[in-house]
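Risk register update: the risk of archive-format incompatibility is retired. Evidence:
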Amino acid sequence: MPSNKNMQDIENRNKKTVLGVFGIVAAMIVLAYASVPLYDLFCRVTGFGGTTGRVAEARQMDILDRQMEVQFRTSTADNMPWDFAVETNKMVVNVGADGFINFTAHNPTGKAVTGTAVYNVTPIKAAKYFKKIQCFCFDEQILTPGQTVNMPVVFFIDPAIDQDVNLRDVKTITLSYTFYKQDSGEAKGSPDKNKET
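Archived output:
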């Protein structure tokens, strides 16, 4: 039969094990809540996953002779009833110069619908040089029944791209948006209903 000291040691070990398990569970919960904003910050800083950079306002910078074709793609998730389009599917801009493009969204339903746009840039290696000054994707959009809105995007390609030897072959950048219905809880995945323009 174990002695009192052995029993006490076993109880202490059990308490430590239980506390350790609770500590791990608590740490996992904290990481689960913090992972989304931390991942978002990481993507915005590095351009990982095709996430573009955001700047508060246009900066004074060199405008280079190098030109890039920027292509635009629009789509909506399967449960998003909006009609979503872009005024032109491509434009040519000088690296460092501001670009301006207008998107439109129309809610053909009889009720207000809230949407959130998810975006990315390809090739992914160019994403960290694609900077947005103004974009409808920064905030959720609410369209009343039958409403049509114009949604401008102001952007530039950072001249630092010219110094990146891995991007000297890049002549075309594609900016893609997918609108998701906000109340659906759907914010990731590939769109089921494509409306490319």
